[in-house]
Specification:
This protein is α+β, with helices and mostly antiparallel strands. Helices cover 55% and strands 15% of the residues. It has one domain: Nucleotidyltransferase, domain 5, CATH 3.30.420.
């Protein structure tokens, strides 16, 4: 099973999808689900260099907004780390449905309590005043 994850510029998890394949159909499903949930399309889609993203974004008409390369994808890669740590200790998840439910709930809760480094000094100043 593959974990597809959409992360915004601040590192918050927007959506998670567990799929058996890494193909155009799965990428399209994630992007459509994300667009439906968010309401407005993002200005850019930053992804790794997987070809399924190129094909899916081309079908949906967002090919010009697609950006790859460099270290632009690090936010998404770093947001995978808590899940990878947990999965290692549990020796994997048993069922895709259970995994999907747990990870979407976990992402919502994680977003509430995860503060980015660049926001910590602003948060401490706001609490002191």
């Amino acid at each position: 099973m593959y974990l597809w994850r959409a992360v915004d510029a601040e590192g918050e998890v927007l959506d998670i999808l567990v799929q058996p394949r890494r193909d155009k159909h799965a990428a399209k499903k994630l992007i459509r689900k994300l667009l439906r949930k968010q309401g407005i399309p993002p200005t850019t889609f930053v992804t790794d260099k997987l070809r399924s993203y190129v094909a899916a974004l081309g079908d949906l008409g967002f090919k010009q907004r697609h950006v790859t390369g460099g270290r632009l994808n690090n936010r998404a890669e770093n947001s995978h780390q808590p899940v990878r740590r947990r999965e290692r200790s549990w020796i994997g998840f048993k069922r895709p449905g259970t995994t999907q439910r747990f990870l979407s709930t976990h992402a919502t809760i994680y977003n509430c309590f995860n503060f980015q480094r660049h926001l910590i000094s602003d948060l401490s100043q706001a609490l002191n005043h």
